[in-house]
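Hi L.,

You mentioned the student needs an example of a multi-chain input paired with its predicted structure. This one should do, with 698 residues in total across all chains.
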Amino acid sequence: MNQLLRELAEQGRNEGAIDAFLEKHELPFVDGSKVTFVFHGFVDEVYLQHWIFGLPSSQQFERMPGTNLFHLTIDIPARSRVEYKLEIRKNGQRRLIADPHNPHFARDPYGANSVVQGAGYEFPDWALEDSEARRGETQDHKIESRVFGGARDLRVYLPARYRPTRRYPLLVMHDGQDYERFASLVTILDNLTHRLEIPQMVVVMTQSPNRLHEYADDPRHADFIADEVVSWADERFSLVDSPSARGLGGASFGAVASLSTALRKPGVFENLFLQSGSFAFTDIGDHDRGPLFDPVVQFVNRYRDAPTRPAQRIFVSCGTYESLIYYNRSMVPILRDTGAELRYVEARDGHNWENWRDRMREGLSWLFPGPLWLVYE
Amino acid sequence: MTTLHIPDHVHILGPQRLRPTLRPALDRAQIGDRIATITGGWEEREGEDEELRSHVARDVVDLRIWGRLEGVFAANQELRTAMQERYDRIRVLRRLYQRQLSHALASARELLTTHDGWCEDLYELATEASIDAVRIIDRKHREHVADIHASFRERLDPSRYPELARQREEIRATLESCSALCIAGGHVAILLNRMRALGVLDHWGTRPIFAWSAGAMVLCPDIVLFHDRPPQGAGDAELLEPGFGIVQNLVVLPHAKRRLRLDDPMRVALFARRFAPARAIALDDGACLEARQNVLTHVDGSSRLDEDGSVVLLQTSGSAA
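Structure written out for the whole complex:
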């Protein structure tokens, strides 16, 4: 038991003392590699639900005898970031809730998770709004897609001080609006540009209404991105007309879509930004990831049989607590052996937007180095 | 102690965006109505100087050095090719220099942080030798870059290119009617090369110069590029090339608080010792350095990096810089 909880147990176990205790301390307790979660309430059982690949996904809390205080201590290595929820059970009913004692949340398209940060984790200051950074401009557009038949939403980021007389690199980001909402993409672009760590660049954020199908090596998607979106952006913005100044990126299925598009449309994008790619494959037999993964597995198996260089420079990142870590680690040497320059980064994190946020500085500044050594304004 | 030499007519300022100090500096120097500005370091944004004009409240003429040279290059394929070749060679040279530096600086850093409590004199000898090795690499790089530029400038003889000669003459004539020259920051290599190509300082003499950020860097004997916290790489400061050398014994460090680990005595000491006898001066927002007969008469917000690893706030009066 955590030392503080032990002291609480020794002091007395009345509800008032417990409330005062919880009020006083920051929870969960992080003590070196030990993290103690606490729940106080009139329930029967409490479980920790997390998404750390390799640990049981549900772990039961222990009740402090004679109280309604539940606790669980687990090992979380230094510099980890773990998203979780609490499952509370009462009268046969189960409910998933955010940890009421933890003020830290991470949002995603499905809601919010509580977050615990292991010892030594540092929140990236470059992901917070910086009052000195000039703000870029975001614009909402619609593109008429011949490939998909209908209008698609695009959101465009123009850097601060955008001038049509200058030519800019182009980055196309799958699920870019999610990146903006849940991974602070626009704030990060403003900050990294202000710090001269990336060049001023135009970013086109796409958002698919049917991403799990379209991103899974669908040839229409490659046509849409490489032909329609790039041409559309070229016509409207002042862009460098060179594949080496174009990048394509995404996370999860978005990384699959990026790799698939780069392979189907060689010479359009020479920079790939692949985060936690869902690069599932099989060496023999069937996979167990469900039918949505069928085209992905076929695509990755085909690629592993006959790999070609998808781009000059590839940034790959993955969390070590993701089930996808095995696939990403396996893809790295294959991609590198094609002659691509590849940077691979792992972090003690899961399959979530803040993991992708935290790797953005390293990835973007590596793919698109800024002028920080030469510009002193 | 090395004496920092800032001529009376030169005013070194910190970054101007958040805490502009140019106007008070102009007022102190009793500068009249027509001043010339150089905003070529801003590249495509050259001349977008509404804030600057409003701040100085004087008649301003921008020399448009970026645009003028773009025009010259656009009209002359031979020159454009020569420029491209020059930068290709410098890029290769810079990569090689960075590789040399990374090893030499790693050795110096290791020795600067290695002490076992006795035979300190021997540790100091070894440390000094390691820093000397860095200085030799710097000196050789400076010579090689200067050679490349010299050979380019031979091809850029204005008399061979009437358009270039015309632009140089226009600048000379414009400057005749100006009482001060203000050099803004921006891309330091572009600023330096275009000022040189257009002969901006050739006829300026000792009329007042007000320079900030990259504009101040080009006035130094050597231009030192620096960043202790880059997102990629070790953050090894490097020499770009010689500057105009109008001020002596000075390396200026704009945005030092943001770019340097001033709280790391080892890095501060290494920087100060490597570039000695030049003094490394941090220029943050609001900074200002002025001198009369080599005595600092006005100092705000400037700090000196010392060889013992400390950072000392500069004071007005005395030549302590």
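You could point out the following to them. The interface with chain B takes residues 132, 161, 163, 165-166, 192, 195, 197, 361-362, 365-366, 369, 371-377 of chain A (CB under 8 Å). Chain A has a mean pLDDT of 95.

Best wishes,
N.
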